[in-house]
Each structure stands twice: as C-alpha cells, then as structure tokens.
Amino acid sequence: MTGGVLSGPSAIADGRGGFSIETVEVDPPGPGEVRVAMAAAGVCHTDHASLRWPGPLVMGHEGAGHVESIGAGVRGLAPGQPVLLNWAIPCGACFQCGRGAQALCERTHELDVPALGTSRAHPGGTRLHGRPIERSFHLGTFARHALVRAEAVTPLPDGLPPDPACILGCAVMTGVGSALNVAAVAPGESVAVLGCGGVGLNVIQGARIAGAAVVVAVDRVPARLERARELGATHLLPATDDAEDLVARVRALTGGRGVDHAFEATGVSALAFLPLQLARNGGNALQVSGAHGAGSVELPRFFWNKRYLTPLYGDCVPGRDFPRLFDWVAQGRLELAALVSHRYPLGALDRAFADMLEGRSAKGVLRIA
Ligand SMILES: [Zn+2]
Ligand SMILES: [Zn+2]
C-alpha cells in the first residue's frame, strides 16, 4: 500500500536568497502519514521570505493534489483521492487546540514528519550538500510529492479540482477567516482593507460574504483595485504616501467616524499600525499580512477602546472552516477561479515571484502534475 521511495523535482531554497530545482527522493509514508502527488501550489509572499530561512528547504505551503499512498493507521483517505493541504496542522490535544485555537497548536513542530533525508527507508539519500532537507510549514508543496501528517490533509469535494482549490490552504483561509472568524464582520458594517494582493482580496471576499455595507479597498496598483471591485469592494482608493489624507478619505466614507474593521494586508511593516487610525472608536484594527520588521506606534492611536489583533491564518479550525469554504465555492459565493491570475510550470518559479512582487498577479499557481 505504501510503495517505495519516489523521486521528482522540487524547488529548494538555499537559505541565502536563492533557490534551485532539484530531484528529491521522498520516503513512503510512515504511520499516520500521507504521501501526496502534488497537482497545483499557490505562490505566496511568505514563499519569497522562505528563500532566507535555514535550508535547504522544500518550498511551498499552499497546495493540493491526490493521495499517492497512506501510512499505517490513516483512516478516511485512499490513493487517488483529491486533497487540499493545510499548513497549520493541529494536534487536537494541546492547550490551544483544547480551547479551539487550532491555528496556534503548540505541538505542530514536535509531531512533524522528519526532514527528508533523516528517515527510515532511504537514510542519507535525499540530503543536499550533506544536510537533510527541511519542508516549508511542514508541507513543502513546490514538489512532485509531499510527505505530510494525515491531519494536514482535507479531502476535496467532487467538482472542486486541485487548481484552483490549492489557494484555499493559505491566502483564502487567511483573508476570509480574518474577516469572519476574527473580526466577525456583521451585516451592514464597514470595512477598509489596505493592500489588494492574495490575502487582501480574500478579506474583501469575507467582508462581502458577511454582508458588509461599505468595503473600502486601498492599493497603489489600479488593476488590483479593479479586481477588488469584482470581488466585493464598494469603494476604491488609490494609495498615496500621505497617510493622513487616506485616513481623512476613509473617515469621509463613514460619517467621519472611521470603519468598524480596518485590515492591513500589505506586508509593509511601516503600515502595520495604520488600521488603528482607520478604525472607529471601539472598532477593530487587524494586521493580517504577518509583516515582520520594526514598527512603532503612539499610544493615542489606540484611543479609544480599539482592539489591535494579529490573527494567524484567519484562526483556522480545519474541520469547521474548510467544509464551509467548499460550500461557498460550490454556491458561487466565494470566488476562486478569478483569483488565480497567472499559472506557471514549477521551473518558472522565478517568474511567479517577479509577477507577485511587482503586483501583476492576484494569485500565481504552479502547475506541478
Ligand atoms: Zn495542538
Ligand atoms: Zn501563505
């Protein structure tokens, strides 16, 4: 049932800002593990950041494909089943999982599948430069095969193919979940979103699904604002360097008060606190881009009674959220196909990065199979 070692091309980050396509050998799945034949993988800003993570590293943390083989004890999955991968892999038993915050699981690292080249069937066979190969977010989806824990795998429903479903497992979940699970946008409320890339566009979709009355999209690139309109933005504001002017324009759309929920989805750390100025008193300011780097804020920005939140992965609870997202796609309420603006072979990852960094793509998808 579990077959032997399989080899295929993988995008490997070198830890110094570069990557190469290498042939990597992947062990058969051990107990509780699944080997997935990748079909499609979304490209995210975090993948570009991962070029400098300790490597070598199989890149990619969004993806979907077909079950190739399953390890002992894996239930409910069979070879050939189309599946979505999810990078925040809950243990189901720790303090955070127990309180329902599965995206914050404390044992994900501990339970991870061993790095390639350290394990059973092929010791040393998959090392690069003598070192075992790590996998981005316990997945490594920019590869012909991914070896993952069974808890990372969600079966896809009939009629939802791996492309475009692959982007559900990071960008869509992060954006839609931040709007619905974390901010809990309610019908008739107002929302502002800074940055209309893969995550920001999905905050906008989440706000639309929630029934927000005012959804203000802010971006520098006109084509991205146009996409935001198609996905649910009611007002489009071209970004400028004048933050005070932007704050004034958003307030003017909300009776001078500020929006109920303001989101930063640019990845620019200097903008991380701007949502505090866009949100009304008693409103929510959310930094959903995961921007790192330095930033500072004057305490009066929090006045009065504003909540500043940094949700991880839209507070994803896989068993609750993925079935709901699948239903919304089937009903036409959640747009996936329109988000995938560019497709590439695995070998064109550099072009996918360039299109993303220069704001040409909404979501780029690598076609792997
Ligand atoms: Zn846990
Ligand atoms: Zn991502």
List the defining traits of the structure above.
6-stranded parallel beta sheet; alpha/beta; 10 helices; binds zinc ion; 23% helix; 25% strand; 17 strands; Rossmann fold; 369 residues; 7-stranded mixed beta sheet; Quinone Oxidoreductase, Chain A, domain 1; 2 domains
Describe the structure.
The radius of gyration is 21 Å and the shape is globular. Helix 4 (171-182) runs parallel beside helix 5 (198-210). It is built from 10 helices and 17 strands. The mean pLDDT is 94. The protein has 369 residues and is α/β, with parallel strands linked by helices. Strand 13, helix 8 (274-278) and strand 14 form a beta-alpha-beta unit. The strands form 3 sheets. Strands 3, 5, 6, 8, 9, 16 and 17 form a 7-stranded mixed sheet that branches.
